[in-house]
């Protein structure tokens, strides 16, 4: 059991054939709001958005209604705020932008736009940088105004939700503004402009608020761009890269090793870190395939790896290897997610499933490892995006022209002269360790 309330119990269940977890809500048919639960389930069944849980099945017997839905791992924003005295302005903006995206989706549904009506911190689930909105129990179609009852949570619900006022997208905008206002109190480096944006979202008078979620989203985006510092020559690079395979043994770790070596070879400071239980770096240490440089850093040619969790220095690119733990990789919400799939025909179904699952990533690149041209074309056609064909490679730390070509295109690298051959290793040490000690 995951949780229990006055109306239902929620269980963690496993799909026996797919071997994946689901959440199952069990509601007694004697409950007076049974029809509302049915409405919520049928409403969610029609949604497809990465920040809204998926409804997989609706079943019932003589006593209970069962709703089988996506198992959302993470913690509520309410829990997150309970042990974070301070939060960054960037985190507030990022969360606000993502929730605006959900509301823009709901409010633009045709022919029946939806008003969520009950946004509050306990209904926002955060896992890394990803966000899920749960509990659509009082969501309504905005076209069914005559059926609306005054409902919502005090302190977050818009004033018109307690009157006979017609519900518009501005009701959800007000609730989001109240959530952002609560977060703003914990932001040390706030700004007058951010305060004005939140103030406009929480105006009591409907006419003074943002008229659409897109309007609020654009204001938050502009504020995020405004506060972003102008970066140096690395501005075109991703600094937070997550790598995972669609299945076990497709070569995600090999490619993470190779990418780390390539970036260091190009003169950028880059560190590899394993994020799954079978830590390959520990195996390299046992086999003496890497040497320790001190400060928890291990090296082989242009490859540098770290064992411990923790923040990397500013300017150091972080390549995280999730192995076959695809869900964890997606939840990391890195600047760039690299999905590795096998080119073998007998593993294509696994690849389809991985590509479909990873489609919600903020920025996705797909690598077909040792794949044929035929496989790459099929995957690209399915994913509606470019798929990179990684060459057969036995030495992940060796820098070959074929691998350079793949990574240069995948990482959108600008042309830059590589480190000269003379004293190559010494210069790499100097670049990496100077960043590491900064």
Structure characterization notes:
- 34% of the residues lie in helices and 21% in strands.
- It has 13 helices and 19 strands.
- The strands form 5 sheets. Strands 12-16-11-17-18-19 form a 6-stranded parallel β-sheet, sandwiched between helices. A 5-stranded antiparallel β-sheet has the order 1-2-3-5-4, covered by helices on one side. Strands 6-8-9 form a 3-stranded antiparallel β-sheet.
- Helix 4 packs antiparallel against helix 5 and helix 10 runs parallel beside helix 11.
Average pLDDT number:
84
DSSP E strands, number: 19
Radius of gyration: 25 Å
Alpha carbon gap, first and last residue: 47 Å
**Helix amount, in percent?**
25-40%
Structural class: alpha/beta
* Order of strands across the main sheet: 12-16-11-17-18-19
Percent strand equals: 15-25%
Number of helices: 13
Strand count, sense and barrel status of the largest sheet are: 6 strands, parallel
**Any idea what the shape is?**
globular
| Uncertain spans | 229-235, 415-423
In short:
By secondary structure, this protein is of the alpha/beta class. It has helices at residues 34-45, 77-82, 89-107, 169-184, 192-201, 213-227, 252-265, 280-286, 326-332, 348-358, 373-383, 401-410, 424-436, and strands at 3-4, 8-15, 20-28, 55-60, 64-70, 75-76, 114-115, 124-127, 130-133, 140-141, 240-245, 270-274, 291-294, 297-300, 303-306, 317-321, 336-342, 364-369, 387-390. It contains 13 helices and 19 strands.
